[in-house]
Design goal:
This protein has one domain: Jelly Rolls, CATH 2.60.120. It is built from 3 helices and 14 strands. Strands 1, 2, 3, 4, 5, 6, 8, 9, 12 and 14 form a 10-stranded antiparallel beta sheet that branches. Strands 7, 10, 11 and 13 form a 4-stranded antiparallel beta sheet that branches. A hairpin with a 2-residue loop joins strand 4 and strand 5. It is globular, with a radius of gyration of 25 Å.
Length: about 250
């Protein structure tokens, strides 16, 4: 026989179970944001001005750690890759040596200049990065451009006061290739995270006067950014340079 006390306890337990079940039905499962996952619907895209300012005619030098922050960046070229595992040397050399637009390997772009890449019309933007690492993902999202499965091109002009023997140190997310005055300096393959000085070149010469530094960064899913600086023979950052976009 179930007495009144037992009946009361069973009623309370039943009500608690019903209440918990109803609460669970009203809750949304937590959003799992993996690499390349879409942001929540209420996510506000950061403005490009949070990460960049327009480059001006004011003379710019590397920051205190030697990082180059002034660049001309081309809006992202569509290059679908569902995974970054394909970024082996042979694949990257084929992609980076493909001519996507006219004068790709020789032009010093002007701010606002447009190029034609297949069916895409893309614009160059001359910008100063607020951070030591150039946030390509934020550059793309701020312009409401494609963020994944893309290829970025970056160009800057390094002005040296004299001939200088240096090494170029680069970090990139994901794979990248870098040229100085038309000569390949570094190829960074694989599915990389951006790490300061991840790869360092052999000894190279920054010649007195103007030097053209060109880079290409490719990524499938995930974030995209890079950082570049020059190091002297002692491994210290080179800061006595000026940086322009032309």
């Amino acid at each position: 026989m179930i007495n009144k006390t037992h009946k009361l306890l069973l009623l309370i337990a039943s009500c608690m179970f019903i209440g918990l079940a109803a609460h669970a039905q009203t809750q949304q499962p937590p959003m799992m944001l993996g690499r390349g996952a879409p942001p929540p619907k209420d996510y506000k895209t950061p403005a490009i001005t949070e990460y960049f300012t327009p480059a001006t005619a004011t003379v710019m030098t590397p920051d205190a750690e030697g990082f180059i922050r002034r660049w001309s960046l081309l809006e992202p070229i569509e290059k679908p890759n569902r995974s970054n595992t394909v970024f082996v040397d042979s694949y990257l050399r084929e992609q980076f040596n493909t001519e996507y637009f006219k004068n790709q390997f020789t032009m010093i772009p002007r701010d606002g200049q447009k190029v034609k890449v297949g069916k895409q019309t893309l614009k160059w933007h001359s910008l100063d990065s607020k951070l030591f690492n150039v946030k390509l993902f934020r550059f793309a999202t701020g312009l409401k451009k494609q963020q994944y499965g893309i290829l970025f091109w970056a160009v800057t002009v390094i002005n040296a006061p004299e001939d200088m023997e240096v090494r170029m140190a680069v970090g990139s997310n994901s794979a990248s290739m870098w040229w100085l005055n038309g000569e390949e300096v570094l190829l960074m393959s694989g599915d990389r995270r951006m790490v300061m000085d991840d790869c360092t070149s052999k000894r190279i010469t920054l010649k007195k006067g103007k030097n053209i530094l060109r880079g290409a960064v490719i990524n499938g899913p995930g974030m995209s950014d890079f950082c570049v600086r020059f190091l002297d023979e002692a491994g210290k950052p080179v800061t006595n340079l000026t940086i322009t976009t032309e």
